[in-house]
Amino acid sequence: MEKLLITGGSGFLGSRLKTAYQDKYEVCTPTHSELDITNKDSVAAFFITERPDKVIHCAGMADVVSCEKKPDESAVVNVVGSLNMASVAAQYKAKIIICSSDQVYCGNRGNIAHNEDEVVFPYNQYGKQKRSAEKECQRVNPDSIILRLSWMYEPDNLADLTRMDYPRNLCTKIQNNEKIRYSTRDRRGITDVNEVVANMEKAFELPGGIYNFGSPNKFNTYDLTKNLISSLGISLRYIEEDTAAFSNNSRNLLMSQEKINKYGIVFRNSYDALYDCLRDKIKVPV
Fold first, then answer.
1. pLDDT at site 282
2. pLDDT score recorded for residue 286
3. Measured on CA atoms in the order 163, 166, 168, 169, is the torsion positive or negative?
4. Contact at 8 Å (CB) between 134 and 86?
5. Banded pLDDT at 158 (limits 50, 70, 90)
6. Which residues contact 279 (CB under 8 A, 6 or more apart)?
7. How high is the pLDDT of residue 89?
8. Is the sign of the CA dihedral 108, 119, 130, 148 positive or negative?
9. DSSP conformation letters of 23-38
10. CA 149: distance to chain centroid?
11. pLDDT recorded at residue 95
12. Which of 161 and 222 is assigned the larger pLDDT?
């Protein structure tokens, strides 16, 4: 049985990868004290002891606000940590997947989906760090498989509000008789985490490179929400355009799936997946 190392194994994606693959691989999800990704010696020592065949590097500081407040600290985790993982994986001939983000596109304009070959202009620290990590990983390990992930959600047990995401925000607002506010100037894919998990193993067969890895979407977030609410038979009085958000700087994080589709990896579009998630689950107050 091959050994699979998952960094960030207690996180949103990592914990689900562990559950999904624990019967197929010998899965190891070390704690920070067992594997400090920011320390190359710690990473090398772990590889010497455990000898993983495959690696999924999920660990990092993903909170955009925290990265803005602590750019140096977050860069050590997001850039140096990824560099160390890719470098040591190459040294010990372990196949590695690096989890990146659609935030690398945050400075790119237009209304169409971005492709992986575009020159990107991230303006927030998180996006800049993820792009730097991509470059460094490709430099030290050209076989690195770098996946640009989008905004993810858990479709099951919507009553669990431990981690708020798009469908939980929608349900909570409606049940509390509150307005749902999204902008027409914000475009991004929203992806079922279970599809990411299911497609992750296929990603190990990809040649080294950068891949958009999440649901396609043709709507801005306001229109997506409006269309969902209407299709679910819910009054449009719950939806309101957020005219302040992104008023000075429209955001387009939409990702083209053309490259990944050529390798047989497919994601449902955001609207269809969210409709299936929310259907019969939203309780409208009387």
1. 80
2. 52
3. positive
4. no
5. confident
6. 232
7. 99
8. positive
9. TTSEEE---TTT--TT
10. 3
11. 99
12. 222
**What stretches of the chain adopt beta strand conformation (E)?**
3-7, 26-28, 54-57, 95-101, 145-149, 151-153, 180-182, 186-187, 190-192, 209-213, 239-241, 251-252
- Which tokens sit at 115? 């492709």
Q: What's the chain's Rg over C-alpha atoms? A: 19
What is the reported pTM? 0.96
Q: Which tokens in the block code for residue 142?
A: 């050209």
Give the C-alpha separation, 254 to 271, whole Å.
13
Residue at 41: amino acid letter: D
Q: What percent of the chain has pLDDT over 70?
A: 99
78-104 average pLDDT score: 99
Query: What are the chain's domains?
Result: 3-151+189-213 (3.40.50.720)
**Distance between CA atoms of 276 and 158, rounded to whole angstroms?**
13
Q: Which amino acid is at 234?
A: I
Q: If residue 278 lies in a helix (H) or strand (E), which one and from where to where?
A: helix 270-278
Question: Which pLDDT does position 163 carry in this prediction?
Answer: 86
pLDDT at 86 over 80: yes
238-264, pLDDT tens digit by residue?
999 999 998 888 999 999 999 999 999
User: What end-to-end distance do the CA atoms of the chain give, in Å?
Assistant: 55
Give the β-pairing of 209-213 and 145-149: parallel
Q: How far is CA 208 from CA 119, 199, 259, in A?
A: 19, 16, 13
CA distances from 83 to 106, 138, 238 (A): 22, 9, 45
In tens, the pLDDT along 13-35 reads: 999 999 999 999 999 999 999 99
SS3 220: strand
